[in-house]
Amino acid sequence: MTEATIAHDLPADERSRLQRRWYWYDWANSAYVTTTATVLISPYLTAVAKEAACPGLAEGAQCSTNLSVLGLPISPGSLAPYTITVATILSAITLIFVGAIADRSPRPTRLLGGFAWAGSIAAASMFFVQGTNWQLGVLLIIIANICLGASLVVYDSLLVRIAGPDERDRVSSRGWAFGYLGGGILLALNLVLLSAYDSLGLTRGQAVRVSLLSAGVWWAVFTLIPYLGLRSLHGTRAKPVDVRAGVVGGSLRQLADTFREMRHYPNTLLFLVAYLFFNDGIQTVISSASLYGQEELGFGESQLITTVLLVQFVAFGGALLFGRLAARLGAKRVILGGLVLWTVVVIIAFFMPEQQFGLWLVLGVGIGIVLGGTQALARSLFSQLIPRGREGEFFSLYQAMERGTSWFGALIFGLVYQLAGSYRLSIIALVLFFVVGGVLLARCDIREGIRQAGNPMPSVV
């Protein structure tokens, strides 16, 4: 593929072939997102931290002793949210450079594979987090999350290379749906393991560690499919490259140009700010749901995994549904409708009584319907607002701005728990993120933004 080649320059059968291979990275990384980041690591790291701070504490009991982290007193129950906070801040700093390098790299799939495999090694190494070794868990979470974000910058930027303007909502939604299916399958296998660990001669902790290992291995193995199948895709540049500057030096110059030029794309910038808010709410729900369900509502680990498994398979259909709705109504309208549903979900979660597992499952169905669809359509809609040849650097801003504020939701969760001892009190604050994000998105003129970026207009906007 030459430097000037873009999706609409390819034959339909070639685009379809590339799209099928592209989907597999959603399948690959969703195992880590689902099994590790969403379900297991926060409760498991909390248990390890409690054992370090309060040795021999009975399960479910409160630990009143703080950990010392860099001289600061940290409640064991706040360690996981704080770790997510640090990981997202570091990601925001790192990712703004990744896209510029990806655009300049002649083989962006090599970057995709490199970041993915580094992250998968960190994810698999969580197997060694046990006893009171919470420090290793914190380090591995940070590494895995940074590498995941970096790989997604490259992966998302390839969407423009494999799908035309009228295909992107469908392709992005199918990718998300495929990811939920893959993540759900591995989670189902891990649910069996965590339900029958006694008969296999394992302890509960060992079963959790094996599950963490499986997510890292899954991520690594299935990354081979997009890595090998998308090798024909090359980096693209809309502007001449100063070869004397090199990859890093040239990338820094390109990054500076991007920030200066953002004023020429006000609707792209407004969309980014809107996404920054509503995605913060989504990510906080995803990362904190298991901790909230276990610590505040009193559900067991198997119940939480069952819930997330339900969400995964519902989200498979939800993502496909949102893709079809976008083809008729436009991605912006469908996303706004999804944000209304997210607000309803958070309000219900706030008022939910303890030990009401049936109602919790109904809430999980609601989350599954809107979860994949809103994120998939946000990705495809943003791709329409990117100037041609600048996909990597703009998607790096997309990912970096997501992480630049998504720590805020996790930080609120941790702070409120430390101050009030209740996760329930913090969850209602997430409504603000959905409302502000929705208002800003409603004010975004998508048609004008596409024109400003110089892109062809899709049939439905």
UniProtKB/TrEMBL annotation:
| GO molecular function, a single term | transmembrane transporter activity
Q: What is its main location?
A: membrane
Which PROSITE patterns would you find in this protein's record?
MFS
Q: How does it sit in the membrane?
A: Multi-pass membrane protein
Q: Supply the alphabetized keyword list.
A: Membrane, Transmembrane, Transmembrane helix, Transport
Keyword Nucleotide-binding attached:
no
Transmembrane feature ranges: 79-102, 109-128, 134-155, 176-197, 209-230, 269-292, 304-322, 334-352, 358-382, 394-417, 423-442
Name one cellular component (GO) term: plasma membrane
Tell me the ranges covered by the Major facilitator superfamily (MFS) profile domain, including all copies: 268-461
Matching PANTHER family: AUTOPHAGY-RELATED PROTEIN 22 (PTHR23519:SF1)
Pfam families given in the database record: ATG22
**Where in the cell does this protein reside?**
Cell membrane
Name used for this protein in its record:
UMF1 family MFS transporter
